[in-house]
Write a structure and sequence with these properties.
The protein is an alpha/beta fold. The protein folds into 4 domains: about 70 residues; about 70 residues, Helix Hairpins, CATH 1.10.287; about 160 residues, 2-Layer Sandwich (Heat Shock Protein 90); about 120 residues, Response regulator (Rossmann fold). The chain is built from 14 helices and 14 strands. Strands 2-4-7-9-8 form a 5-stranded mixed beta sheet. It binds adenosine-5'-triphosphate and magnesium ion (MG).
């Protein structure tokens, strides 16, 4: 049966004929068996190449699946980043509005105590109470500045500062001393590059940023651990795709590392949101710490990268653009005497409290003061007479703001000296007013000294 099957095979005949032709001494059965082996080898070889092909296809398929998963993940990350950016933007808008309104309210509160003191001369018994009002008002105005920092509607003054100096300043603060005592098992390691390049920054805000990051590191290592603060000069050649994309450039890097509880992948995307906190009852967290950090980072044109894994500690990297040239520090050398004057000044503001405050303050400094309750009233006033300088509020009536007012006034008095003021920080319309000739932008709220200096600078220009 077996022999029959093989001897009837197609190949057998050909092979038999071939063997016979070259006269090899093999029997028919041997040739048939040989043929079967050859056939099987052929099949096996075919199977091998088929298998190789399948393997190749499988690898390609796997690659495609991995690629798809990767793009899906990237898409998801992008979507979350976008949502986060949108949420932050709406919060910033809200906070910016609140900060603007509060700044207007705070203006007389910050300015009046100094004015009252000037009127009362020195050593009068109510001086202490005035000092309390003044301190509270200044504190409130600093808090509002923080809010405005978040909303990025405030440009606080910046100068050339050194990150190491900011760290050292924070390390001598009461908060740091308190934390060192509270967490004796946390070891502090400082690796500060003494040649680090300065950055353009605000010292109080930088120490606040360091404080919030260091406090978090302490608080999330309740059993103890290592808290490392590093500064270094970094040149980024290729974009680092981190929490934020770190673009090529020269940076002064602040790195704060802990080996505490770490942050999970799902939490990390939310940590900069206001009121997001994972602190338990015994820790008094409001969830604003990192929100403030984020605002300060943005206000410094810096970039942030966070790396953390659950139970594996956290690393916060903040890339501050490095200053190439040392900026000159501006020195506050003026005194009250030097800000006095007798020139004619027109105050244009739609808020009565502001008009009254400015009028009182400038009269105290000996100026000849006039007021206008809006831009149109100012234009009318100046069509009849002239003044040496105008103090112009930016946001007044919708259809006739500070810029519109200044344009009209310049038609009547092309050389009119002006100062522009607002509770918001510099925007396009303020920039335009400055371009037209206003000497300075005065951010509300301001002290008498700041007001007086702006006026004198404007007049003496
Ligand atoms: N170093 C860290 N280690 C682990 N988790 C952290 C760290 N830093 C921040 N987080 C997480 O981010 C959340 C938000 O931090 P954030 O500083 O904004 O608020 P908070 O520390 O909870 O409260 P607050 O700072 O207002 O006292 C924390 O609750 C925590 O879940
Ligand atoms: Mg915190």
């Amino acid at each position: 049966m077996f022999c029959q099957t093989i001897s009837s095979g197609l190949h057998t005949k050909g092979l038999y004929t071939a063997f016979r032709l070259i006269d090899l001494p093999y029997s028919e059965i041997e040739i048939a068996l040989f043929n079967i082996i050859v056939n099987r080898i052929g099949e096996a070889l075919e199977n091998i190449s088929l298998f190789e092909e399948l393997k190749k296809q499988n690898i390609n398929l796997q690659k495609e699946i991995i690629e798809r998963k990767k793009t899906e993940k990237e898409k998801k990350i992008l979507q979350v980043k976008l949502e986060l950016a949108k949420r932050m933007e709406s919060i910033e808008l809200l906070v910016g509005g609140v900060a603007h309104d509060l700044n207007n309210i705070l203006c007389p509160l910050v300015g009046y105590p100094q004015l009252i003191r000037m009127k009362l001369k020195n050593n009068i018994p109510i001086d202490r109470e005035i000092e309390i009002i003044e301190k509270a008002a200044l504190r409130a105005s600093n808090e509002v500045k923080d809010l405005a920092t978040i909303s990025r509607k405030s440009a606080y003054p910046k100068k050339s500062v050194n990150l190491n100096a900011a760290i050292e300043e924070y390390f001598t603060s009461a908060t740091m001393i308190e934390y060192e005592e509270k967490y004796p098992d946390v070891k502090i390691i400082k690796k500060l590059d003494k040649d680090i390049k300065n950055i353009s920054g605000s010292m109080p805000h930088l120490t606040k940023l360091i404080m919030n990051l260091v406090c978090n590191a302490y608080e999330f290592m309740p059993e103890g651990g290592e808290l490392t603060i590093t500064t270094s000069s970094v040149k980024v050649d290729k974009t680092i795709y981190g929490y934020e994309d770190i673009l090529p450039g020269n940076y002064s890097l602040l790195k704060i590392t802990d080996n505490g509880s770490g942050i999970s992948e799902s939490d990390i995307i939310r940590i900069f949101e206001p009121y997001y906190t994972k602190k338990i009852h015994s820790m008094t967290g409001s969830g604003l710490g990192l929100w403030v950090v984020y605002g300060i980072v943005k206000e410094h044109n810096a970039l942030i990268d966070v790396n953390s894994e659950n139970r594996n500690g956290s690393v916060f990297n903040i890339y501050f653009p490095a200053l190439e040239q040392e900026e000159e520090e501006t020195k506050d050398s003026r005194n009250i005497k030097s800000i006095r004057g007798t020139e004619k000044i027109l105050v244009i503001d739609d808020e009565i409290e502001l008009r009254t405050f400015l009028s009182d303050a400038l009269k105290q400094l000996n100026y000849d003061v006039y007021v206008a309750e809006n831009g149109r009233a100012a234009v009318k006033f100046l069509s009849e007479q002239s003044v040496n300088l105008i103090i112009l509020d930016m946001i007044m009536e919708n259809d006739f703001d500070g810029l519109d007012t200044y344009r009209e006034i310049l038609r009547i008095h092309p050389e009119q000296k002006a100062i522009i003021s607002s509770g918001f920080s510099v925007n396009e319309r303020i920039e335009e007013t400055l371009k037209l000739g206003a000497s300075q932008f005065l951010k509300k709220p301001y002290t008498i000294m700041e007001l007086g200096e702006a006026i004198r600078n404007g007049l003496d220009k």
